[in-house]
Specification:
This protein has five helices and twelve strands. The chain is an alpha+beta fold. It has two domains: 13-43 and 185-277, no CATH class; 57-162 and 295-314, no CATH class.
Length: 314
């Protein structure tokens, strides 16, 4: 009989499991035999990787804009800021530092307009971009897309620098490198029912065998970070992925490493509202990046002052 559970995540962050049927892969497109045909939990293996970089980004809407066009009516826009960077964990030195931090500001206006946001006294300054989609939600998606692209660039640079990279979210760059995507919320149950049962019985520090989804050109596997008190069978589970262009042996090593190492940095409920999935280095990185973006109130006032000053110019 099915049971009811209260999720451990704070409600403001949504839920770690939000099924969306239209995103489910087509029947027959999932290959669960790429590692082994007999499925069951596999123990992680810590191979001693000493340099691990956790890459993530944060974004926010600084202000809402309106272009007052007497012919077509009000045209929406936004000012948005995002920041990306890496929390670099040197296991030999027993320290974590924030590196490769980058902040960008965008003024996005719908309708392919030619208006430009006037100069705002901020560093870095805003860059104005126009999009065709008139949907106000598309403005936020545009900023999010720019942030995800910057995250991918950061992850690629760190991997080329010799770091094993854990990139928060699905992979953007599928070139063959030492990077795994770390997906902490589940919108699709990719596996057939028989293999899906393996996820529910994973112990802490265990993973499923690898599987692939034909259309996505990447390997995937599930890892159990922890079994939170009062949790259900999918609590504390994350999905990891790696480029399908990598040799399978290399992906297997990364999968084993992820199952052994990621639980070591899983967050605790009393410290993080998205525990255990929001890893401790990622939480620290997010706090640092939000600080770099500047105070929301000060940024808003700077934007408003710049626009009002331009209106006052005869």
């Amino acid at each position: 009989m099915a049971r009811l559970f209260v999720e451990g995540w704070a409600p403001d962050y949504g839920a770690p499991f939000e099924p969306v049927e239209e995103l489910a892969p087509a029947e027959g497109s999932v290959d669960v035999t790429v590692e082994r045909s007999d499925w069951g939990p596999l123990d992680g293996t810590d191979d001693g990787a000493t340099r691990i970089a956790f890459v993530d980004g944060v974004r926010r809407v600084d202000a809402r804009l309106t272009v007052d066009d007497p012919t077509v009516g009000p045209v929406p826009g936004i000012c948005g800021t995002f920041a990306v960077g890496a929390a670099c964990w040197d296991r030999e030195a027993r320290e974590t530092t924030i590196d490769a931090a980058r902040v960008e500001r965008l003024a996005v206006i719908s309708g392919r307009r030619e208006e430009q946001l006037p100069p705002v006294a901020l560093d870095p300054p805003y860059r104005t971009e126009a999009i065709a989609d008139p949907d106000p939600d598309a403005l936020v998606r545009h900023v999010h897309t720019r942030m995800r692209r910057a995250e991918g660039e950061c992850a690629t640079a760190m991997a080329r620098g010799g770091w094993f990279v854990v990139a928060d979210g699905p992979l953007n760059d599928l070139s063959p490198q030492q990077t795994i995507g770390y997906v902490k919320s589940h919108r699709v149950t990719y596996l057939p029912a028989l293999q899906g049962e393996t996820v529910t019985v994973l112990g802490t520090g265990q993973r499923t065998p690898l599987f692939t989804i034909a259309a996505y050109e990447r390997y995937s596997w599930y890892v159990r970070l922890a079994r939170p008190p009062g949790g259900h069978s999918w609590s504390g589970v994350v999905r990891c992925e790696a480029s399908g262009a990598l040799p399978r042996a290399e992906v297997l090593a990364m999968a084993d490493r992820s199952a052994a190492v990621l639980p070591l940095v899983a967050s605790q409920e009393h410290l993080d509202p998205r525990a255990p999935q929001n890893l401790v280095p990622i939480g620290a990185l997010e706090r640092s990046l939000r600080h770099l973006m500047g105070d929301r109130g000060l940024v808003y006032r700077a934007v408003r002052a710049a626009v009002m000053e331009e209106e006052m110019v005869p």
